[in-house]
Amino acid sequence: MTVSRRFTASLYVAQLVALATIVRSVVFERWVTVLASVLLIAGAQAAARHRTWGVGLALAMAVAFPAAHLLGMAPSWFWLVGVAGALPFALSSRWMASFDKGATLLFAAVAAAAGVACAMAWHEIYLSMFAR
Fold first, then answer.
1. Above 60 in pLDDT, residue 99?
2. CA distances from 23 to 28, 37, 59 (A)
3. Whole domain around residue 25: which residue ranges?
4. What is the rounded CA–CA span in Å between residue 42 and residue 51?
5. For the chain, what is the domain count?
6. pLDDT-based confidence at 57, cuts 50/70/90?
7. What is the Cα–Cα distance from 29 to 36, expressed in whole angstroms?
8. Helix intervals (H) in 29-77
9. How far apart are alpha carbons 128 and 132 in whole angstroms?
10. Taking 70 as the threshold, does the pLDDT of residue 63 lie above it?
11. pTM (whole model) above 0.70
């Protein structure tokens, strides 16, 4: 399987996992998880259209899922969602680094920081909503 086929397959995997997460989250009325899953799908769709920001958005949401688990707000299987969402970046990072290694590292760091920031922001909102 060539790199481009693996990359395309990783986009499908990320979208399927996000779709399954949406179904589960709608059933349990976890609307923030629905939003994060929709953003993961949107990022994968943009990446399929050769938009680099789509890979970054998918990576940011992929990091947000395990971060939510670490903050105690989500089940442990969110790590699997994170792995599936990070696959497109993992498969395209070597190609990106062939142009500029520093920019690729910064891109990954900013996307990961954005994902953690999203999870932390939701954690703070979540605590303030139920602390009343």
1. yes
2. 9, 10, 21
3. 3-130
4. 11
5. 1
6. very high
7. 13
8. 31-48, 52-70
9. 7
10. yes
11. yes
